[in-house]
Write a structure and sequence with these properties.
Largest sheet: 2 strands, antiparallel
Helix content: 55-70%
Number of strands: 4
Number of helices: 8
Shape: rod-shaped
Structural class: mainly alpha
Radius of gyration: 39 Å
């Protein structure tokens, strides 16, 4: 049948051409963006799953940051306690030197001055209230602190660290209270600001030895916590890698596959354009009938 008003062949060719152009445009967009989900309609279910996985991955990253900061907290506390051990060792050395019978009172006074200076350093590092460490004033901002958190005070609950992305995935870093026991005895002052223990006091060596043991015990506890945190950091790193891989499989475009699709739709657009041009020429054959 030869008609002029309705060119069915041209309409079909135009429809096919539009479909090919749309797919070509999608392919170009995917390759240029690197994502195969450009619009939600491309993969609605995949988009929903990937969004949930992405949120989970962000929580993993946040937990990793928490763990790393907790490790820094422990390392800071351990660094201070390492310094305390050196101070205590020097104090024990001074206590023995002061017992040298060949030293006169002036020599002993010099030892006492250094001993007192070391006590001042310990007191300033540990800090605390006058009820805990005596003296004439509280030390509210001790040297031993991390981001405003006092390292060596009394904290019955410890510090709770979130070490995973789900609810309940946490651990507690136990307190390192150096404001009691032998350490407290070394830094306690009376109401006039004079230390209760001096270099000539009987039993001083025993008190210092107990204080060294106290610090060593606290360092061991922190070391155990750090080992667990480092293990948690490794686990989180693996979880982050696996989640990223899963998200990539859903969202990221396969360049080789999509390049093949691009070539296919490019050819279809070119052939569709050519066929549409020929279909548009078909009605001209009717003119021959009119001219005959």
């Amino acid at each position: 049948m030869s008609v002029i008003n309705t060119n069915i062949q041209a309409m079909a060719a135009a429809r096919s051409l539009n479909a090919s152009q749309e797919m070509l445009g999608r392919s170009l967009t995917r390759l240029s963006s690197g994502s195969k989900i450009v619009n939600p309609s491309d993969d609605a279910a995949g988009l929903a799953v990937s969004e949930k996985l992405d949120a989970q991955n962000r929580r993993v990253q946040a937990a990793t940051t928490n763990v790393q900061n907790a490790v820094s907290y422990i390392q800071t506390a351990d660094g201070f306690m390492s310094g305390m051990t050196k101070i205590l060792s020097r104090m024990s050395e001074l206590a023995i030197l002061a017992k040298d019978v060949t030293k006169n009172s002036t020599d002993v006074d010099l030892y006492q001055q250094e001993f007192t200076a070391l006590q001042d350093q310990l007191r300033a590092t540990i800090g605390g209230s006058t009820a805990e460490i005596g003296g004439t004033a509280d030390i509210d901002t001790p040297l031993g602190a991390f981001n405003g958190i006092t390292l060596f005070g009394s904290n019955s609950t410890g510090l709770t660290v979130t070490i995973g992305q789900a609810i309940g995935q946490d651990m507690t870093i136990r307190e390192s209270n150096l404001r009691d026991g032998a350490m407290a005895a070394l830094i306690t002052q009376d109401s006039s600001g004079v230390y209760s223990l001096g270099i000539a006091d009987t039993g001083l060596i025993g008190d210092i030895t107990d204080a060294i043991q106290h610090v060593a015990t606290e360092r061991a506890k922190l070391g155990a916590s750090q080992s667990r945190l480092e293990l948690a950091a490794t686990t989180l790193s693996v979880e982050y890698e696996n989640l990223s891989s899963a998200i990539s499989r859903i969202r990221d475009v396969d360049v080789a596959k999509e390049s093949t699709q691009l070539a296919k739709y490019n050819i279809l657009v070119q052939s569709g354009t050519s066929m549409l041009a020929q279909a548009n020429q078909s009605p001209q054959s009717v003119l021959k009938l009119l001219q005959s």
